[in-house]
Queue: 2 jobs
Job 1
Amino acid sequence: MTATPNATARPASPLAPDVEARILAAVDARFDEQLARTAELVETPSLRGGEEPAQDLMARYFGERGLDIDRWTIGSDELRAHHGFGRCTVDYDTMTNVVGTYTPAVNAGRSLILNGHIDVVPEGPESQWSRSPWRAEMRDGWMYGRGAGDMKAGLIANLFAFDAIRAAGLELTGRVHLQSVVEEECTGNGSLAALLRGYTADAVIISEPEEDSLVRANVGVLWFTARVSGNPTHPREMGNGFNAIDAAYGVVAALRELEQRWNDDKANHPYFEDLDHPINVNIGGISGGDWPSSVPAWCELRVRVATYPGVSADAAWAEIRETVALAARATAEHPKFDVELTPDGFWAEGYVLEPGSDAEALLERTHRAAFGRELTTFTTPGYLDGRVFVNYGNLPTLVYGPVSEHIHGFDERVNLESVRRCTQSMALFIAEWCGVREA
Ligand SMILES: [Zn+2]
């Protein structure tokens, strides 16, 4: 199950025009089936802790193609000891990654990982969707549903891009690992577990919904809970108590100041200087108090903070702690209060895809062939598993995929024509990167 980069591999020669045409046509010919499989996957919910039915499907798809299947529960001591391990709050004994590996009869080309995550974020109040989030309705050139864009269309595009080579009457001459990982939306531990299991390659593609563009740089992300302690009293003597919910507003204000300070520093971070607001602090959850007629004894904030590439998670964490400790010190407005910060998810550092790799040069060509226009690059202020492969595997990692709207929101959707062309671009990439011969 382990593949090391093929040291003797040489760049394959550019595809002959007729071979390129056959691969593009093979994607078109199977596109209806690709959409049917994408819909099947969208209609199989895969919220955190409930990914297994969807991973069953992925394993079935890989098996139907004759790939060697490696499916394992991701928890391990090595994972937990890793610097980039996201502090998990769930049981990893039942959550699996699935990898399907193609091993060529003649291994002469470069190897490739095609990665995607199976997990999706909660759908929110279903009454605010205009259709069921778990029914993959196709309308006016879009497919709707939770995970349609982020990123089940990409997972299935990986598969059908790979399929197109064989469907075009060709045989790959490099190894390919198709990865379906868990935990991308909360810790990044799924891709990290795959790397630690020994999966590496000469390049990686992650087909996240990226507007038909290539991600150049990406923030790191930390998750934590801030728990403020109060002093509960009866409201008739409210002045003798301490209201943890009121105090939490002060913690939020301090985090907003930190957010402003870090955004004001964007000019010092290459690829981030032109973004309006690269660092976003999200107060993603709040709970607290036990009774309307008791001064609340506790309040918890669930927080997501972004960091620039090159800023260590340890350094960011130290600054967050210092900022919150200052807010909790005694002032004219309030006495000193207790606030405890606990990491409970991402512990991830950002990354930059350094320009000039062979992989990027090839994607520029295959994108042009599929879309008829130049490939653009951009910086994204959201987490990506690319950081695992770049920071810890030193692998050229192309995060590249289709146009979507409302990911993590209501009526999430992915653009079908964009999916088709991205699949074509990736199929050409696979063929030229790994090399092909007539079957
Ligand atoms: Zn995603």
Job 2
Amino acid sequence: MIMKNILHSFLSLFFPDLCVVCREKFIDGEQHICTDCLLLLPKTNFHLQADNRLEQFFAGRVPFERAAAFAYFIKGGSLQQIIHELKYKRNPDIGYFIGKLSGENIKGSEFIRSVDFLVPVPLHPKRQKERGYNQSLKVCEGLSEVTGIPVNSGTLIRTVNNPSQTKNSRFDRWTNVEDIFSLSDRDTFINKHILLIDDVITTGSTIESCAKEILKSEGCKISIYAVGTAN
Ligand SMILES: [Zn+2]
């Protein structure tokens, strides 16, 4: 044990565990994000506000029960660094961690009271292989750990890869994501309330496309949740 600690301290000189936001070294017990940066995260608390900005954003685009996000995604802000770490730095643990934080935030609220399944926005298998994991699934796993709501990641599937998505305008992106999702079976979501989970909501076109596919299940209801929202 002592040897292990010495080795850890030695390695920390070269590969220190740093807060993904401020890059400061951790003090006892901190991991991924330091306490100071956690306290400064710009939480939305949209789950407590009916008719919040995100719900207004999706209104008329797709039928849904509620929509919320954990924090505001601001260019150059702390959540942008966290999401960057999650998507491009091969750090699935930060997804699980931020999922647990989100879970603590919405646990026990009306927002999730009747939810049957947490469903991550699926990645195309090719993209998932490149990244090594689906970041939204990692967030779901953290949320599930805290709330006890089961994850379903096998029913909603992505059938088309669209790597050029981020370069296109909103209209192009919308047409781009039409019909790229499908359901692997028609029964699982019947009469269920699905909480659809994404990492960040920007145009909302991916969520909209997923929701339309899920809603083909009879009697199914949708709510929407993301770690971050640019809206
Ligand atoms: Zn920090």
